Amino acid sequence: MADGNCLISNEWICGEYVRTRGQELTDATLEHVWITLASVAIGLVVAFPLALLARRWRVVAGPVLGMTTILYTVPSLAMFSLLLPVFGVSAAVVITGLVLYSLTILVRNIMAGLASVPEEAREAARGMGYGPLRLLFGVELPLALPALMAGLRITTVSTVSLTTVGAIIGYGGLGNLIYEGMRSFFKAEVLTASVLCVALAVVADLLLLALQRLLTPWARKSRKGTT
Amino acid sequence: MDVVAKAWTWLATGSHWAGPDGVWHRLGQHLFLTFVCLAISCAVALPIAVALGHIGKGGALAVNISNAGRAVPTFAVLVLLLLSPLGTHGQWPTIIALVLFAVPPLLTNAYVGVREADREVVEAARGMGMTGGQLIRRVELPLAFPLVMTGVRTAAVQVVATATLAALPGGGGLGRIITAGFRLTDTPQVVAGAVLVAALALVVEGVFVVLGWVLDPMRRRTGRRAAARLPADQAPQSPALTA
């Protein structure tokens, strides 16, 4: 019984809690990860064509940027509540809300990245006979990667944190544990879930940073002035 | 959409607006919390940010605090504060959480604004014999004003959003209409509450956009330069430039 003491005395840090509820914690973390991954992935898939459209036609750029800014202003609790009648109680509510939030930063950063591509690089590629598609994916997209990845990192970190609010409808990953712990005044549960959530955000950020380094090897060389 | 019609009916029902659980009272709580916390945050963050920007130190702090603010879930902080010894002290956990999340945008934007005030102008002012205090008041602050206001606006919207979440651990404000709706499984009430919260957030954003424009000390003097500065104003929000 001595080991169970921290559960009974309701302490903030409780090894016994982590040991006995390991499964619960793993499940919540996994739910958190897949909700985040799905949201960011869908966000990217939606943001990319939007950014291309906004770049192609200036008329589209204003409304697209305006709409995404307005969406970003809506508080998360309200966003999920507004989507509730559309999807019913399901993970789709949380994921759709998070996708809408992610668009603000992703669209802006993809546009900034594409705008930063030097005109000479485009000209050179055209001169080499690149068609529009090959130009986009072979030249422009790689050169836009640093800005895109910066946006992706910011989006991922805030998505991890916002997912917790999904607890209001039971799809909040680690947020569910925080919500449950709040109702039962269970300190160890709240603190453990919160710490895991921050750790998840940090790990995701570092992974994306590593991916960026891997995808843009020329960025490291250019700092030394070789290119 | 049946729910939309029912939510509209909910909003149109006078009894939902009156009384201690009514919209007016909740809106009052929300606005009170927003303004008190925004005022405290500005009082804490702006002097520090301006001082750091003036002496040109602490740039890493300004950026990192902003990143940390993004990674830490507001909901977690609200609940942690509620369960801490502070939890028994009425509104204090909510107020502290709101201030904590309003400080990063204020600090980062004001710091960048002062730091990136046109160096040539600052040098010229210094050459004219301005003291540090004069430099801040007459040169750096007016030049940094658009960015400082961007920070205040972002912080205000953040406070409105966090105050909504504060309803989950039992704080006041419009979020209570949403959480009460969830408890009663009354979806129209949830949607009605969400519409009110979203409208409030947009109005607050709009008010600060207008305030920023009207109060800008550089607007009348150099209208064209202010317009040219617009893209730079969004720099801290545009992660491509800060990362």
TrEMBL record, chain A:
Membrane topology of the entry: Multi-pass membrane protein
Entry keywords, A to Z: Membrane, Transmembrane, Transmembrane helix, Transport
Alphabetical list of Gene3D superfamilies matching this protein: MetI-like
Transmembrane regions: 33-53, 60-80, 86-107, 160-179, 191-211
SUPFAM superfamilies associated with the record: MetI-like (SSF161098)
All residue ranges annotated as the ABC transmembrane type-1 domain in the record: 29-208
InterPro entries with a match to the protein in the record: ABC_transp_perm/SBD, MetI-like, MetI-like_sf
Highest taxon in the source lineage: Bacteria
Location of the protein in the cell: Cell membrane; Membrane
Family of this protein: Belongs to the binding-protein-dependent transport system permease family.
Protein name from the UniProt record: Osmoprotectant transport system permease protein
Native source species: Streptomyces demainii
Native organism taxonomy: Bacteria, Bacillati, Actinomycetota, Actinomycetes, Kitasatosporales
